[in-house]
Amino acid sequence: MSDADHAAARRELVSALRRRLDASERTLSAIGAVPRHEFVPESHRGSAYADRPLPIGHDQTVSAPHMVATMTDLLDVECGDRVFEVGTGCGYHAAVAAEAVGPGNVFSAERVPELAAGARERLDRLGYDVTVVARDGREAFADEAPFDAAYLTCAAPESIPVAIVDRVLPGGRVVAPVREDGRQRLVRLTVGEDGVDREDHGGVRFVPMR
């Protein structure tokens, strides 16, 4: 596919997401700006703008665009907000977040060194100022806290780790899939001075957090 073909496919994807989701134009614009085909293996580039997950190696996947859009929208971030991502993967979700909050404001942790290195190179090559480290998300970026928002691209066991929630400012949000009773639910926490408010946003399917 040519660059023009990829651009047309992105426009079609955004139009489909606009019909399917109650997402903000800021979020849809971010999805429309990121060349997803650059983040998937060459063997899957023909499906880059299909609204489904795709394998990226190391038993990991890149989430479907509608899920990335949903999670980005639930974060309710704006330009200048600082965002903490757990699970860089190929870097696609981080790029969408960076489109929403601007350069230098996304900090991403990936436990698989090879994926972290690949994402770092890819994001840099495409002009995204995202900080990527190869480290467990429960430990990464403690010295960069607090953040305005955080999200996980892997399913947390039973609850979102306290170490991650504690890095988010009061009034900020944490969005993550959480495993409960053998199922996964997409959860949004709003951090308060005296605890968190929890919202359930439906069933999902993600690779497990390790």
UniProtKB/TrEMBL annotation:
Superkingdom, according to UniProt? Archaea
Family annotation (CDD domains): AdoMet_MTases
Enzyme Commission no: 2.1.1.77
Give the catalysed reaction(s), semicolon-separated. [protein]-L-isoaspartate + S-adenosyl-L-methionine = [protein]-L-isoaspartate alpha-methyl ester + S-adenosyl-L-homocysteine
Question: Where is this gene product found?
Answer: Cytoplasm
Q: Does the keyword Zinc-finger apply?
A: no
Q: What is the name of the protein in this document? A: Protein-L-isoaspartate O-methyltransferase
A Pfam family this chain is assigned to:
PCMT
Of which family is this protein a member? Answer: Belongs to the methyltransferase superfamily. L-isoaspartyl/D-aspartyl protein methyltransferase family.
User: What taxonomic ancestry is recorded?
Assistant: Archaea, Methanobacteriati, Methanobacteriota, Stenosarchaea group, Halobacteria
Q: Alphabetically list the UniProt keywords.
A: Cytoplasm, Methyltransferase, S-adenosyl-L-methionine, Transferase
What does the UniProt record say this protein does?
Catalyzes the methyl esterification of L-isoaspartyl residues in peptides and proteins that result from spontaneous decomposition of normal L-aspartyl and L-asparaginyl residues. It plays a role in the repair and/or degradation of damaged proteins.
Gene Ontology terms describing biological process: methylation; protein repair
Organism encoding this protein: Halorubrum tebenquichense DSM 14210
UniProt cross-references to Gene3D superfamilies, sorted A to Z: Vaccinia Virus protein VP39
Q: Name one GO cellular component term.
A: cytoplasm
Class of the enzyme per the UniProt entry, highest EC level: transferase
Q: What are the recorded GO MF terms, alphabetically?
A: protein-L-isoaspartate (D-aspartate) O-methyltransferase activity
